[in-house]
Specification:
The protein is built from 15 helices and 14 strands. The chain is α/β, with parallel strands linked by helices. A hairpin with a 3-residue loop joins strand 1 (22-28) and strand 2 (32-39). The radius of gyration is 22 Å and the shape is globular.
């Protein structure tokens, strides 16, 4: 058995007793709205839901209240305003309406905050304008985030609305890690630098990993591997990010479900000159038709493993390329940190694909990394150690909770702002 203490849920954020206890978390995508209503007294989820295919005749809303049965309906939802009104109606059916005095704030996931937004921020017109100015470096995400914010502000103009930025956790990277080696004036003029993404997940998981080890975040160095359809790695020293794999956009870094990750940028020029492809066609190729799906036609790791078990060589090669890139980043971030206390796997693949965890550390015993086959095979929803008791570096599986992280940051900021923390 592992000698490490039992896991604990991160609880660093203030919990003001006199502040209304609920926070609604909204994650607005281009054609969807994910939401959770949380009670910050015990961090319980009062309701969760999703509106998808917004703008289509076959839009769908799925809503699940705490302790109740899920409700689902299908029909046209014209836009994000209609979607949020539908969400408000579902919450009201459970006595959890947006007009409730129990609601303290609405927290919004915003993908790109640039260099300016280094922490959660109460949204006003100036903040909205800056998020809008960042659209050129996040054209797929920031417009949808803005639509959700504007709609929520219209529904509850009296309520504090807080933006929690995916990029904020990575703003602690030193310039040596954040700068690309291109002309400085050109880079500054066009805001070209490495911003990183999945920041709320990396923040939550690095802190939860420290607690799993029975230490404060300031005492540990952690490599976090957020492995889902989108995938990123981070090097976290004493609670602060010092490097991450994604860059100006989420395309850089690890091999992902449909994204290429790292590649020679001259490939783009080659495809333009020799392949006759346009910039938009190459953008689609690298973001939607590359990575695992480009290599073998599947971006579901479960299906890829099934095909490998049946002797499919194309699936095997895709898996090997995926793991090879992971190993490179583990080794690179080990060198960046100098000392590593834990390697943490999170997100859909990281939490559930034991063969990925095993393969990622295979051959790295000299770095103190190994997994115990029995511990690694166990599935569960709680943070856990899967390395042998004698391992120099803990290998952990830490389920991420980006919504709780957004709610906690939102609640702490509103409490401080009201002088109740």
């Amino acid at each position: 058995m592992s000698p490490h203490p039992s896991p604990a849920v991160p609880s660093d954020e203030p919990r003001p007793d006199s502040l209304a206890p609920r926070v609604l978390v909204l994650n607005s995508g281009s054609s969807s709205v994910k939401y959770q209503l949380l009670d910050m007294r015990d961090r319980s989820r009062l309701a969760v839901g999703l509106v998808e295919r917004i703008g289509e005749e076959t839009s769908r809303l799925r809503h699940t209240p705490l302790g109740g049965r899920s409700r689902e309906w299908t029909g046209p939802v014209a836009d994000h305003e209609a979607a949020l009104k539908a969400v408000a109606e579902e919450l009201a059916r459970d006595g959890l309406g947006l007009d409730s005095p129990e609601l303290a704030a609405i927290g919004h996931r915003v993908v790109h905050g640039g260099k300016r937004f280094t922490e959660p921020t109460v949204i006003d017109d100036a903040v909205l304008a800056e998020i809008e100015r960042l659209i050129p470096v996040a054209p797929l995400h920031n417009p949808a985030n803005l639509t959700g914010i504007r709609t929520a502000r219209a529904l509850r103009p009296d309520l504090p609305q807080v933006a929690v930025f995916d990029t904020a956790f990575h703003t602690t990277m030193p310039e040596a890690a954040a700068r690309y080696a291109i002309d400085v004036e050109t880079a500054d003029r066009h805001r070209i630098r490495r911003y990183g993404f999945h920041g709320t997940s990396h923040a939550y998981v690095s802190r939860a990993t420290a607690k799993l080890l029975g230490k404060a975040p300031e005492e540990v160095n952690v490599i976090v591997l957020h492995l889902g359809n989108g995938a990123s790695a981070s090097a976290v020293r004493a609670g602060r990010c010092v490097d991450t794999s994604m860059g100006l956009t989420p395309l850089e870094g690890l091999v992902m479900g449909t994204r290429s990750g790292d590649m020679d940028p001259a490939v783009i020029f080659h495809l333009m000159r020799v392949g006759g492809m346009s910039a938009d066609e190459i953008d689609t190729l690298l973001n939607k038709r590359s990575g695992l799906i480009g290599l073998c036609g599947d971006n579901d790791m479960r299906e890829i493993r099934r095909r490998i078990d049946e002797g499919d060589e194309r699936a095997r090669l895709a898996f090997d390329i995926y793991i090879h890139r992971l190993k490179k980043y583990i080794g690179a971030y080990y060198a960046v940190l100098g000392r590593v206390d834990a390697l943490a796997f999170t997100a859909g693949v990281g939490e559930n694909a034991a063969p990925v965890r095993e393969a990622a550390v295979a051959g790295l015993e000299g770095l103190g990394l190994a997994v115990d086959p029995e511990l690694n095979a166990v599935r569960g929803d709680e943070p856990r150690i899967v390395s042998p008791a004698h391992a120099r570096v803990a290998v952990a599986v830490v389920p991420t909770d980006e919504e709780l992280e957004i709610a906690a940051q939102t609640y702490a900021l509103v409490g401080k702002r009201n002088g109740k923390a």
